[in-house]
Structure formats: structure tokens, C-alpha cells
Amino acid sequence: MNNIFLITKREFLTQVKKKSFIILTLLAPILLLGFGAVIGLMFKANESHSIIEVVDKNGLFKNQLKSNDKLNYVFVSAADEKSKINNLKNNESLDGILVLPELKDQNFDELEKNTRLVINNKIGFDTKQKIVSDINEVIKKEKIKKLGIAEIQLDNLDKSFNLKTINVSENNKEDSDLAFGVKSVLSMLLMYVTFMFIIIYGVRVMRSVLEEKNNRVVEIIISSVKPFELMMGKILGVTMVALTQFIVWITMSVIGALVLNTGFSAIPKNIPGNEDVADKFDILQIGTQISHSLLELNFPLIIFVFITFFLLGYIFYSSIYAAIGSAVDNETETQQFTLFAVLPLMLGMYGSFTLMNNPDGPLGFWLSIIPFTSPVAMIARIPYGVPAWQIALSIGLLLGTTLFMIFLAGKIYRVGILMYGNKATLKEILKWIKG
User: Fold this and answer.
1) Which parts of 273-425 fold into alpha helices (H)?
2) What is the structure's pLDDT at 293?
3) For residue 61, what is the DSSP state?
4) Residue 118 burial (CB < 10 Å; 0-12/13-18/19+)?
5) Whose CB among 23, 219, 358, 367 lies 3.0–4.6 Å from 377's, allowing a Cys bridge?
6) Average pLDDT of the chain, as a whole number
7) Judging by beta carbons within 10 Å of its beta carbon (0-12, 13-18, 19+), is residue 52 exposed, middle or buried?
8) Comparing 435 with 197, which gets the higher pLDDT?
9) For residue 25, which of 251, 307, 255, 248 has the smallest C-alpha distance?
10) Residue among 361, 375, 368, 372 nearest 393 (CA)
């Protein structure tokens, strides 16, 4: 046990003393936010402002096609239709001409058939869909008016219905759309972070084992320690490195949420149903709403489950990676074995995408109970709320499977770490386990 502690300490201190580790740990959340902002700016920079001239031969659309900051309708006389189209190619300031024919005998099918959009250059798909949507909205209103429905009644038809949801399992707390959105984003974020870190740090353990094996350093090391102690020291050392990063990031996230939450009382309590949130709140206010929704969750339980399942899941899969690293002589040979470690995690991750529709469904339950997928699936479920007995059962099964996997990996590691020049096969690995 003392040797395991010493190796763990060495692996941990070697990693955390690196400047790259310190910089990445402190700057990663900022870099992540910056990356998201850059992506948003890229989408914003690629937005276009289109100018469409409209030839409305009915006068039906003139006061109903509304311009916005992305699409500007300019109505022109029907007498100028031909000249406008002929000169369109040389008019760089104009994107297209929308020709709306006469509506005869309320025949909207004929109107659709003869309506055309003549464009100067390629327009975006969103722009075209916006034009179609605007035309459909006008035609819809005209069809309803034909039925004798007044304008005020027409507006009332489009009024949205906001359903208040009260969750009796959470002390009758109101479950708003924003709260559900926050849970969904948090669920996917925690699941993806766990998935990526298990793979990244698992591969790091495998490469470390492979490097020491190829350099023959391991022959010197195992003269002082047992192969099993060396394997566990490496796994636990890298585990502590990952855990240190998570603790720093969780602390930064909670502090940030608490700071934003101080301004929650100064803004409206409810976000409008179908109105554009960006028009009603600035970025700081939206962030404050989100931070308040986050702090309303059972954060101690979420953090406990996240750390527990990450640690057990990481040790479970790192044992597999360590065994793979000891059984091969180069990284090329690892590809035929790493698939066995990656596939269950991918199954758990992609299966967890369905949890937003039914977090308590049979798929979510079994993915979060089976040890091969529970490290990512249970973490994806926990923001929605999971019964305590399911958490306890999942932890018990994962803990037992992890200990069994450590036992198997230790037997493979003990033989494989000293094997050189022979390409390990599944048949040979089975013999090492039985030996």
C-alpha cells in the first residue's frame, strides 16, 4: 500500500507542477466561454441583410410584409416589373425581386403557382424560408378573414398558451421551461465532460505504461515494487490530477453562479413565453436567470454523483487502458484493443441524448445501472432527479465491477509489462488472466 501511495504521489506531482497544467486548469473555463463567444460572433458575422423589392399586383401584401434587421421589403410599382428584372443583374445593392400576381376569385393555389422570386445572387436558406413564412402568414390571415373572423379574434387565435408545471416530487416547485433547458444543457455538458476526460486521461495512462515498457524503465521499477502496485499508482495518480481540475472548475462555476445570482431579484421573475428573449433581457440578465436556475438544483447531490461516477468510471476504464498498454509494444497495436473501451462509453453517451425526452424511461434507467455505461448515463440523468435507491444500486454495481476489472487488468499487466517482441492476441491475453 505504501508503494502505491508513493507512485500515486509521484504521478500526481509530476503532472500538477507543469505550467501547462496550471494554465489549462485556470484558463479552461475562460477559454471555453471565449470559444462559445467566437462561435457566436462567427454566426453573427456571416449573417446577411437582404433587400427584396416586391411587386404586389393585389395590394394585399403591402402593409403586411414586415421588414426586419435581416430582410428589408421595398414595394415598387407593377409597371416597373420588367425594367426592374432586366436591370437586376447590374444592381449590386438589390438581392431579388418578389413578384406576387393578382389574386383572382380568392384562388390562393393559383397565386402560389404564379408567385416567383427573381434573385441577383444566391440568397441564404433562412432568407428564403423567411419570405415563404411571411407570405404564408398573410395568406393564412386572408383565409381566416374570409370566414368572417375579426382581426382581434385572429390575433387571439395566435396567442400562445403557457402551461405552469408543478413538480410534487420536488416540494411543489414550479418547473419552468428555462429550468428544464438549464437541466438539459447541464446534463449534456456533464456527460460530455466525463466521456472526454475518461478517454483523454485513460489514453494518457496507456501511453505512460507503453512508454516505460518500450524504454525498459519498467524492468528497473518492478525490481522495487510489484506490477500491480505500479499499475494502481499510475491510475490513481492521474485520477487525482483529473479530480483536481474538476474541483477547481466546479468552484469557479459555483462562485460565478453565486455572483450572478445576487442580481436575480432586480429582474423579472418570468421569461416571456414565445417572445424573443434577446429583445427583453441583456446578456447579463439572461446569465443571472440561468445562474438562479442552476442554484435551485440539488447541487450537493449533483456534485457528489458527478465526482463519484467519474472516479469509479475513470478507474474502471483506466484499468482497461493500462492493461492494453502493457499488452502491446507500440501505439499502432493499441487500436485493435481500445475499441473495446470506447464503444461502451459511446453507447452510453449517444443513448443519453434521449434522456431529454424521458429521463425516467427504461433506456435511461438501464444505461445508468449497467456499469459499462453508467459513468456517463447516470451523470446525464442526475440534473433531472434520480431516486436514491437507483443511485445506490448503480454505485454498488459500478464499484464491484471496477474492483473486478482492476483484478483482471492486474493479471494482464503483471505478464504483459515484461513481454517484448510478441504481438499479443486475445487468446494469449485470456491465458494471462487464467494463469
Assistant:
1) 277-280, 283-295, 299-327, 331-352, 362-369, 374-381, 388-416
2) 62
3) S
4) middle
5) 367
6) 76
7) buried
8) 197
9) 248
10) 368
